[in-house]
Amino acid sequence: RNMSSAGPEGRKKMRECDGLIDSLVYYIQGAIADHEPNDKATENCVCILHNLSYQLEIELPESYAQSIYMQRRNISSNDKTPGCFGTRSRKVKEKQQDTPLPEEKSNLRGIESLWHSTLIRIYLSLIAKSTRNYTQEASLGALQNLTAGTGPMPFAVAQTVVQKANGLPSIRTMLHVSHPTVKKTAVSLLRNLSRNTSLQSDIAREVLPDLVLILPESVPGSDIVCETTASICYTLYNLTQNNSHNARLLLSADGLPKIITISMNDSNIFSKASRAASVLLYSLWSHTDLHSAYKK
């Protein structure tokens, strides 16, 4: 666990170590099957996998990276139907259409396991079943790592989490835990997921009211709460930027007074949260059909 946080070279060596990742996954699967998701060894295994998934897409060996992007290109080239607004619309559609997970094999080994749907479901299972904060945080953090970035892998993983593995209910539960780091990591994962336009309706329906609920009335003087608040605002920004229905949902959840209060708190310690709230307010005002509701 300590060695897995030793930087890029350490991660590379450990990912390439024959049988290491397979053994970690095997152990966690056994612990879940035996209804023992809270033991210390499981926590260690998940923390190692969390660290090994950090910057995974950037650090993948060339052969893997090439096969992912080649597969993506083949999928895109098969869809030549222009959208309602011609080429631009088609490009957006190609960028975020349903992407199969790369290297999705039944007899996977080693590094391929790190982004396979089997491990994604294991993380979601641990989030739901473990009561150990470090295990919850590491599982959420691994999914956060896998959904970071704008390449085909993050979008594929995001679709698996939201649509194929029904992961939002488990993630939503983590928004209401008392442990601040677990809550912060859950919000950061949702922020990554919310960048995928094809998932925004599902995410808004499932968790937008919860995000508004956990927004503080005013930002307390703690860095972690300030960062969490900023992440919530940016997640809400992603969900409402191009969707008037989601903006109305935020309004009906009484989110506006909280966001206004946070945006006006311009002292240095709150600047990150204040700036994020201001960006969200500016975006909400772009929905001209809601101006009268806002004024009320």
From TrEMBL:
One of its GO terms (biological process) is heart development. InterPro entries: ARM-like, ARM-type_fold, Armadillo, Plakophilin/d_Catenin. PANTHER family: PLAKOPHILIN-2 (PTHR10372:SF25), PLAKOPHILLIN-RELATED (PTHR10372). This is PKP2 protein. The gene is Pkp2. Residues 94-104 have a biased composition (Basic and acidic residues). Residues 79-104 are annotated as: Disordered. It is found in: Cell junction. The lineage of its organism: Eukaryota, Metazoa, Chordata, Craniata, Vertebrata. GO terms for cellular component: adherens junction; cytoplasm; intercalated disc; nucleus; plasma membrane.
